[in-house]
Amino acid sequence: METDPNNVTIRKLRQDEESQARDIIVSGIYTQLVTVLGAIRLLIVATLLRCCFSCFWRMYVAYGFLMAIFYAVSNSVWVSVILTAVSCLPAAYGIQYTIYLHWLRARRMELDHLYSWYNAKSYKTGRKFWVAVCDGKVIGTAAVEKTSNTEAELKWMSVLPEYRRRGVGTRLMKRFEGYCRCEGVEKMVIGTSRLQPEAVRLFKRSGFVCTLTIAGGIFRFEKMI
After folding, report:
1. Residue 63 class from Cβ within 10 Å (0-12 exposed, 13-18 middle, 19+ buried)?
2. Distance CA 204, CA 209 (A)
3. What is the pLDDT of residues 120-159, one digit of tens each?
4. How far, in Å, CA of 37 to CA of 25, rounded?
5. Which residues of the chain have pLDDT under 70?
6. Quick one: which of 128, 121, 126, 143 has its CA closest to 184?
């Protein structure tokens, strides 16, 4: 356990803090996924996928029908294109929210039992969960899971918006790296996305290098130690 002058303590998760930690994780994920940028990106991805698979012509017919209506009313190509795109945003949000729910459902067991999941003696060693606490309130989370004897992944890293830019994320990152060094880990791995610009900047400042980019917005960062 360590405390700084701002009265922020980094320590292991306690059982009575499980719900606070889970709320921070879930709210952080949801906030990232419901941004307009994310919705537009998913709309584009969904359009490309539909073009690659069956029934894509129905989608084009629907889009064309909407554009024709908007063009007849506005007599402007640009206005009709913009209105068609805006009218499709609710569907994009629906797709995004569905993905969000599916992603959470796949990790429900872990999220519902954070304390036991990261403290289970019956499982393998190599799982740790830390929290940043200020005045008795959990304000940040970070977890690590060893994926092999020489590789570990940082998970569930999140800090409440009102406590960001105070060095909390940096301290959680240092705790992760310190643990990896003690455990003989050679490679640290982190997954993030373009929807987390603050996290991306933190990882780069900490010496991580992007080794994989998927769909133009999902990143895998690695650092050798």
Report:
1. middle
2. 7
3. 764 556 899 999 999 999 999 999 999 998 999 999 999 9
4. 20
5. 1-6, 30-63, 85-104, 106, 121-125, 215-216
6. 126
Identify residue 211 by its one-letter amino acid code.
Answer: T
The owner of tokens 């304000």 is 139
Hey, what are 6's tokens?
Answer: 């701002």
pTM of the model: 0.69
List C-alpha distances in Å: 90 to 35, 42, 93, 94, 189: 12, 11, 5, 6, 35
Q: How far apart are CA 221 and CA 208, in angstroms?
A: 6
pLDDT of residue 68: 83
Structure token digits, residue 140: 């940040």
Strands 151-159 and 187-193: parallel
DSSP 21-43: HHHHHHHHHHHHHTSHHHHHHHH
Instruction: Return the DSSP state at 208.
Output: -
Instruction: Say if residues 81 and 67 touch (Cβ distance below 8 Å).
Output: yes
Q: Which two tokens stand for residue 123?
A: 């499982």
Closest CA to 160 of 20, 18, 17: 20
203's torsion region: left (phi>0), alpha (psi -120 to 50) or beta?
Answer: alpha
Phi, psi (degrees; rounded to nearest 5) at 164: -80, 165
